[in-house]
Amino acid sequence: MIKVISASDRHHASHGWLDSYFLFSFSDYYDMDNVQWGPLRVFNDDYIKANSGFPEHSHSEMEIVTIVLEGEVTHKDSLGNDTVIRAGEVQRMTTGTGVSHSEHNSTDQDLHLYQLWFFPNKKGLTPSYEQKAIDFTDEKNELIPLVTGQKVLEDVVYINSNSTIYYANLKEGKEIDFKTFPIRKGLIYVTTGELFVNGIQVQKNDQVRSSDVDALRIKASADSTFILIDLPGVEANY
Question: In what order do the strands lie in the sheet with 215-220?
Fold first, then answer.
């Protein structure tokens, strides 16, 4: 199954200082048919104005991944971390038994980031934090792993989930074949450009959700960047 969800079908929440596009039910947006995709519970595409941000708040029993595309975010948490995550960097926070944090754009430039929440593969984990600079924004015409819990890879952020997040910067005319299994799920979110996925056209901010396929054949019909997430299909494999 290949399902395309257009950019216009994302939920848009505007708060003046924050423009957020929800790919799944979140906050005051609820759709019983759009709560999660495998263990992926939240995927928010956030634009945060200069000198603004999220005050301290709490989380538990989630793996939270932040991918900064433009600008930088200042992060502080109850674990004692006080860091800055810049464009091209990835952060993972295991909230486990509970953690509080704040996120601010403390610069004079706008901030663009993706934040994703995953159900962890076990409950009651000790809260932890990881941040890594990964050279994923250059034109490499390949899938670059950013976060994984499936296998040991160098220079990749670890997550307590049987999932992997990839980023690709694909030049016009270039192709990628991603081998998968019918028992897995996939999600592609187009950051820029235009793709054909298994022959189906998708454009900027469109998403593709796949299941019961053995390969995703991705071709760029324009210079494109996108996120690809490989996910377990059943809860027993989270």
Answer: 175-179, 215-220, 194-197, 200-203
Phi, psi values for residue 207, rounded to 5°: -130, 150
Cα–Cα distance for residue pair 46/33, rounded to 1 Å:
22
Sign of the CA dihedral 48, 15, 115, 128? Answer: positive
Residue 166 · residue 216 · CB < 8 Å? no
Task: Give first-to-last CA distance, the chain, whole Å.
Answer: 20
Residue 87 in 3-state DSSP?
coil
Q: pTM of this prediction?
A: 0.96
Pair 21, 205: CB distance under 8 Å: yes
How many CB atoms sit inside 10 A of residue 43's CB? 24
Residues 6 or more apart in contact with residue 196 via CB below 8 angstroms = 202, 218, 219, 221
Question: Among candidates 211, 217, 229, which has minimal Cα distance to 3?
Answer: 211
Residue pLDDT, tens place only, 55-75: 999 999 999 999 999 999 999
Nearest to 166 by CA among 176, 71, 174: 176
Query: In whole angstroms, what is the distance from residue 17 CA to residue 49 CA?
Result: 5
Q: Output DSSP code: residue 57.
A: E
Sign, CA dihedral 81-155-197-219, equals positive
- Other C-beta atoms lying within 10 Å of the C-beta of residue 19: 16
